[in-house]
Specification:
The structure holds two protein chains of two kinds. Chain A is an alpha+beta fold. In chain A, about 25% of the residues lie in helices and about 20% in strands. Chain A folds into three domains: about 120 residues, D-Maltodextrin-Binding Protein, domain 2 (3-Layer(aba) Sandwich), CATH 3.40.190; about 100 residues, Dipeptide-binding Protein, Domain 1 (Dipeptide-binding Protein, domain 1); about 210 residues, Dipeptide-binding Protein, Domain 3 (Dipeptide-binding Protein, domain 3), CATH 3.10.105.10. Chain B contains 27 helices and no strands. The chains are: A alpha+beta, B mainly alpha. Chain A: One of its GO terms (cellular component) is periplasmic space.
């Protein structure tokens, strides 16, 4: 009798419906074949960190999903192209006037000069300020006739590039109504409208029919955020998603033929040498380290060919750099390391980096250094690097910052006042060269000055460019029109369809 | 009639549990408070800037300029100091049920933690089901033979369990996801949308857990079958199934505390599986919060786990009382020991020889020489175990890693065993401590240890040992509770034996062997736990050929170069099997009987005992018939 009762209890437990609340919602992708263009399923690598705040890293997510737009955008050559602004002109050193196009916000209101000015003003007041505004102060005022006048505190020859940053996207007045968090849900201008956010696991987007650039082909997007690279690859291979972002090098070989699309990116993996303290304060030893490095072994052996051997701080993704490169001059002769011991640090957030560091370790030891390797999680490493506790550091850095201007990475990473100077470099010639490039307004001359500054930095041997990574995006064979760009700012556009 | 009996039983059980519960409850609350305070002070103790870690979690590429950091400090109100922040958080929680907002995203903590906890609990439930099935399968042979009285001829197994227990979760998970999910397409390979999504993650978590539980159970079962009631039941003609069921019931209380620990451990510590299958669980969110020092999320997550630990601990105690309550109270249990020590076997020698051969063959090779032109090569004459992703010889790496891995893992296991047994003998003190320590996610435990001990070379070992003793202490306490209620102990006590004598000659010999086998079973897990701390900058980093590290660094290539993960996984499993079978070998009944009198006195049946203990002629003689009858009743009910 007792056992019968017990059995009943167990059966009851088993039959009680599984608490559906304990599963993640948003799993049904049944609407993939609706008559009006299918929905696109996308697996993104980085979950929204700050509830899609347009001022942080989530801004890039919004821009990649085609939700937000700024006044300008970057074209394939890295110059500013019209987006919400039809045209612009520089009125004076500090003042630019942008003329807006006829467009509507996703909440139905019109894009007017006053809403745009208000939106930019909100961005300037955000704390911490959007990365694109680092070191710049600007004020935006509405002018007559769909025009916005933007004034900067210092002369800013690259303001249109700066305004292409996803962090300076234009949102309607509705986005700022709630106190505390700015909401891009239904308040942006892009071809897709964010309709539902499911924590940090998924988001649902619908097509915005009144988009100024024409209706998108896909009727919507189901985005999932999958941090694990292998899981993303598996999702693509099982057909659970149409597009999977950032396939790890180790998994790229397991994709079907034609599914992995390579894009040269602005991401450069480099070896940064501590120029202030330790053995690499001696530039002869830095030269020895540079000569010891075989970049093609890294590109082929570690990145399996999904990378180009290091050419400079900027890789082949910066298309205009080709033909403008300056050979570094005045380098010193390498000295024999004679067993000098060094600490080489790197982080494991990108799985290739520890492998790169181990190959480098062998190459450097072959040249006569004694190497100790230190691998940690990035946030546990960075402050020690900035404090100069390591002699060498392997880092993968996106050389196109939010400012959209290549010079800014040179200024930030390699000048005495640079805020992210991991090589702890402070060199007069470099500072001068970078300052010259920063002050140049004419596009062609600015590009020349940028490459000259790059050569000045390279000739100090503070940085040894290792590889320029090509990012592999998994795109299902049936998908058309995925927008893969070297700046990693777009992914889905009006022409993308499943 | 029966129903009233039962309700009364529950009532007395509850009363017994409540009695003396006051100090334990206070101790429990004190521990939880200590944990929360420890988390609240974490950034200040480790001297890492929370504004910086939060910034990096929000946007890894953002330059940490002073302006940005100040803005974040102001936003989070960090300048108020740790005590005030902690006080505000506690106040909000206690007064308004508000656990604050995440420092990273600004979202409210409570809903997200509750949601993650729900997913994790479901995953844990699935894993437990798998673990239960695995444990039963592992015990099936013993149950079958035992219920038919044929255990005497049984050779102890354990290799299978040891192999399963040595399976690293992340490896099982990625292999299952790739083969069953992607290549065969039988089950979804990622996501968390419904019951069919549960199967693969539950399998990867449940198999090793079930192996540990099954092995522990299998260790106890022969003792139960040798008890007089089993003989009586068999003689009376009860079917084998009933006897097997009662034997299980007799042994389960010894394993339940560890099951309770798995409940909590799997809920909060399934990070790798959550990552590979993309499950929005608590393990991942607390890991992220721990790395980013997102204190409100971390505190809420830890609190949820501690509460879960207290609940599951309470439930386990209740069930144990229900299953063995009257017998415990009356001191009417038998000692659960194997009637005869297992026969000597060649198996451990075989395993040992295989392991030695691998090490001997690999030692002359260079574990660090890499050749990027010979990556991921098949096993061949030149590279018997193939090469890894950087073209290094896998055999050489496995062999060279053996020494480091083995010594460290063995040392940690020994420390954990010692601590576990000592604290296990003080169940009132250690019970809540075990629950709390076990509830802390491993990464958080490592961070807390680092906060206290600094990041010296011994820190990783300390961090692993700080958690590893828990299950052993729980096991010790469970066995002790039963042992103390045995008839022979009562008798020895009645004959005037002092507590020290009891400890030395009765309790320790009864408790140590199974707990030692348990510790050895967990040896591979210890090696893996060490490697898992590497990313915090603790423990061995690349290019050291430490086994856990070998597994982790080759895991992404598991599909393309299975040999690179299979080799370290195989030696780890071999180590587990060797440890477990050798533990049986330690008990070889070698002739010099006088050399180890306490062990020889362990047999469970009474006639044996009396014969072998001429110095205690009346041991248990008088009380036995009544007590034994009680045990039979107890067992047969």
């Amino acid at each position: 009798m007792r056992s019968v009762r017990r059995r009943r209890l167990i059966a009851g437990l088993l039959l009680s419906p599984l608490p559906s609340g304990c599963f993640a919602s948003g799993g049904d992708a049944s609407s993939a074949d609706s008559p009006d263009g299918g929905r696109l399923r996308v697996a993104l690598a980085f979950p929204p960190a700050e509830r899609f705040s347009p001022y942080g890293a989530d801004a890039t997510l919004l821009s990649r999903l085609g939700v937000t737009e700024g006044l300008t955008k970057l074209d394939a050559n890295g110059s500013a192209a019209p987006a919400l602004a039809e045209s612009w002109k520089r009125e004076s050193d500090r003042t630019w006037v942008f003329t807006l196009r006829e467009a509507t916000f996703q909440d139905g209101t019109d894009v007017t000069s006053s809403t745009v000015a208000a939106s930019l003003t909100h961005a300037t007041q955000a704390r911490p300020a959007p990365a694109a505004l680092a070191g710049a102060t600007l004020t935006a005022k509405a002018a007559a006739d769909q025009q916005v006048r933007v004034t900067t505190a210092d002369p800013d020859p690259v303001l249109p590039l700066r305004l292409s940053s996803p962090g300076l996207a234009v949102l309607s007045a509705g986005a700022y109504e709630k106190k505390g968090a700015v909401s891009p849900v239904g308040t942006a201008t892009g071809p897709f409208e964010l309709t539902k956010v499911n924590g940090t696991t998924a988001a649902t987007l619908d097509r915005f029919d009144d988009y100024w650039g024409g209706r998108a082909q896909a009727s919507g997007i189901d985005a999932t955020f999958t941090a694990d690279g292998m899981a993303r690859t598996n999702a693509l291979r099982t057909g659970e998603v149409d597009i999977a972002e950032a396939i790890p090098v180790s998994q790229a070989a397991s994709l079907d033929e034609g599914t992995g699309r390579e894009t040269a990116t602005m991401r450069t993996t480099s070896l940064l040498l501590n120029t202030t303290s330790g053995p690499f304060a001696d530039e002869k030893l830095r030269a020895a380290a540079r000569e010891a490095v075989d970049t093609s072994a890294l590109a082929k052996g570690v990145y399996e060919g999904h990378a180009d051997p290091g050419q400079g701080i900027f890789g082949p993704a910066l298309t205009w750099a080709e033909g403008k490169r300056v050979t570094p001059s005045g380098r010193v002769r390498a000295a024999d390391p004679k067993g000098t011991s060094i600490t080489l640090a790197t982080y494991d957030n990108r799985p290739e980096l520890p492998e790169v560091a181990q190959v480098l370790e062998q190459q450097l030891e072959g040249a006569g250094f004694t190497v100790k390797l230190e691998v940690r999680e990035y946030s546990r490493l960075e402050s020690d690097v900035l404090a100069g506790k390591f002699d060498a550091f392997v880092s993968a850095r996106n050389t196109m910052l939010d400012t959209g201007d290549p010079v800014s990475i040179l200024a930030g990473d390699y000048t005495c006042d640079g805020s992210y100077n991991l090589a702890l470099l402070c060199d007069k010639k470099v500072d001068q060269a970078v300052a010259r490039a920063e002050g140049e307004a004419d596009t062609a001359k600015r590009q020349d000055a940028t490459m000259a500054a790059e050569a000045a930095i390279l000739s100090t041997d503070a940085v040894v460019p290792l590889v320029h990574q090509r990012i592999v995006t998994g795109v299902h064979a049936s998908v058309r029109g995925a927008m893969l760009d070297p700046y990693e700012r777009t992914l889905v556009g009006t022409g993308t369809r499943p | 009639m029966r129903i009233r009996d039962e309700t009364m039983g529950i009532r007395t059980t509850l009363r017994t549990c409540a009695r003396g519960g006051g100090p334990v409850l206070i101790w429990r609350i004190a521990l939880a408070t200590l944990l929360l305070c420890g988390i609240g002070l974490l950034p200040w103790l480790t001297r890492t800037n929370p504004a910086l870690t939060v910034l990096k979690a929000r946007s890894a590429e953002r330059a940490p300029t002073p302006e940005v950091l100040t803005a974040i400090r102001d936003e989070l109100g960090l300048d108020a100091g740790p005590l005030q922040i902690l006080g505000q958080w506690l106040g909000g929680l206690l007064l308004h049920g508000d656990a604050g907002s995440s420092w990273i995203s600004g979202a409210e903590v409570l809903p997200s933690v509750v949601q993650a906890l729900g997913a994790s609990l479901l995953l844990m439930a699935g894993a437990l089901a798998v673990a239960g099935a695995t444990a039963l399968v592992l015990c099936a042979r013993t149950l079958w033979l035992g219920s038919r009285g044929r255990l005497a001829r049984r050779r102890t197994g354990g290799s299978g369990a040891a192999l399963l227990a040595a399976l690293p979760e992340f490896l099982t998970a990625s292999v299952l996801a790739t083969i069953v999910g992607v290549q065969l397409g039988w089950l979804p390979a990622l996501g968390w949308y419904g019951p069919q999504w549960m199967v693969l993650p539950a399998l990867s978590l449940g198999l090793p857990a079930g192996a540990v539980l099954g092995r522990m159970l299998d260790d106890l079962l022969p003792g139960a079958f040798a008890e007089p009631w089993a003989l009586a039941a068999a003689a009376r003609g009860l079917p084998g199934r009933s006897i097997a069921r009662q034997a299980l019931r007799r042994c389960v209380p010894g394993v339940l505390p560890n099951l309770g620990l798995f409940v909590v451990g799997l809920t909060g510590g399934a990070v790798a599986v959550e990552q590979i299958f993309d499950i929005p669980g608590l393990g991942r969110s607390t890991l992220q919060a721990a790395v980013a020092q997102d204190l409100p999320v971390l505190q809420a997550g830890a609190l949820a786990l501690v509460l879960l630990a207290a609940a599951s601990g309470g439930l386990v105690r209740l069930v144990v009382r229900l299953l063995t309550g009257p017998a415990l109270r009356d001191g009417a249990l038998q000692s659960l020991h194997r009637p005869s020590p297992p026969a000597p076997r060649v198996l451990p020698l075989l395993y040992g020889a295989a392991l030695l051969a691998v090490v001997a063959l690999g030692l002359p090779r260079d574990p660090l020489a890499l050749d990027t032109k010979a990556r991921l090569q098949h096993p061949s004459a030149e590279h018997p175990f193939g090469t890894d992703a950087l073209g290094r010889d896998v055999l050489a790496r496995v062999a060279h890693g053996a020494l480091d891995t083995l010594t460290l893992a063995l040392a940690i296991s020994a420390v954990a065993l010692l601590t576990g047994v000592v604290l296990g003998f003080l169940p009132r003190l250690s019970g809540p401590l075990v629950d709390t320590v076990n509830a802390i996610p491993p990464v958080l435990a490592a961070l807390l240890v680092t906060a206290v001990a600094g990041s010296g070379p011994a820190t990783p070992a300390l961090a692993v040992a700080a958690v590893a003793w828990g299950p052993l202490a729980a096991h010790t306490s469970a066995l002790l509770q039963q042992e103390r209620a045995t008839t022979h102990l009562l008798a020895t006590h009645a004959l005037g034996a002092g507590p020290l004598h009891l400890l030395r000659y009765e309790l320790l010999p009864a408790v140590l062997p199974p707990v030692t086998r348990h510790a050895l079973l967990r040896l591979p897990g210890t090696a893996l736990a060490l490697a898992a701390l590497g990313f915090l900058g603790l423990g061995a980093g690349p290019p050291t050929p430490e086994w856990g590290l070998l597994l982790a660094e080759n895991q992404p290539y598991a599909e393309r170069a299975p040999w690179a993960v299979l080799a370290p996984a195989a030696v780890l499993a071999l180590l587990g099997a060797l440890a477990v079978t050798a533990a049986d070998g330690v008990r070889w009944p070698r002739p010099p009987r006088r050399a180890r009198p306490p062990r020889e006195r362990r047999p469970g049946t009474l006639p044996d005992r009396i014969l072998s203990e001429p110095d205690q002629p009346h041991a248990g003689a008088t009380p036995t018939p009544r007590k034994e009858a009680a045990t039979v009743r107890e067992g047969a009910r």
